[in-house]
Amino acid sequence: MPWPSRKRDKGAVADKKEPDAKIAKTEEETSDKEEEEKSAKPPAGSSKSGWKNWKKTKESESGGEESKITYCHWLLKSEPESRLEKGVDVKFSVDDLKAQPNQTTCWDGVRNYQARNFLRAMKIGQQAFFYHSNCKEPGIVAIVKVVKEAYPDHTQFDQKDPHYDSTSRKENPKWSMVDVQFVRMTKRFIPLSEIKAHHLAHKADGGPLKDMMLFTRQRLSIQPLTQEQFDFVLSLEEGKPH
């Protein structure tokens, strides 16, 4: 039986709490050829000040060495509230993931080339934030890990699936998916509004969230994170809600 589909189509809906974010080009407006030719690597970010206490702690732990900028963590968006797409409910919350056998699911339905390339770059053991999207209060609710690297997404060949792609061929599949497994809930819900506040502060002082894709390419349902970005966002779970 196929896993429940999640909303990860060509143009992910912008989060309802993010009406003022500017999108230079939506995924729907980008041609397949343009997307396919884009590099899978996002522009590198930088990190300096404005997050001094956190940075001092991390430097102390690493002997003062700066983190090398690599994209080894991820943010995965999924919709926790019911929404029909071509007659199919695409809802898939973290509770739905926890209810799966071995708390594991395939991350299917991605229909954007850049997001697909990010899926193909994932390695076993890498961790990702499970992000509730397109809901009353979007934000990070849990941590998952990659347990199977990219392989053909079965939904592209299923005519009954909302993500069916008649142009894809089994001998040369266009779309991929990975398997992820639940690791743990975050110690508290980390809302988009709180992450955005840090993003805006870091834009001014060069912190790790300055170029976070959650705000620079917010419609992408699969987003890479640097080690610094992942560590900083994870550190927020220890603080009090803003």
TrEMBL record:
Function: Specifically binds 5-hydroxymethylcytosine (5hmC), suggesting that it acts as a specific reader of 5hmC.
Highest taxon, organism lineage: Eukaryota
Main localization category: nucleus
Keyword Metal-binding appears in the UniProt entry: no
Subcellular location: Nucleus
CDD domains named in the record: EVE
KW Cytoplasm (keyword) present: no
Source organism of the structure: Tachuris rubrigastra
Leader sequence segment: none
Region Disordered, annotated ranges: 1-62
GO annotation, cellular component aspect: nucleus
Composition skew (Low complexity), residue ranges: 41-52
Protein name: Thymocyte nuclear protein 1
Start-end of Basic and acidic residues biased regions: 10-28
Domain EVE positions: 73-235
Key words of the record: Nucleus, Phosphoprotein
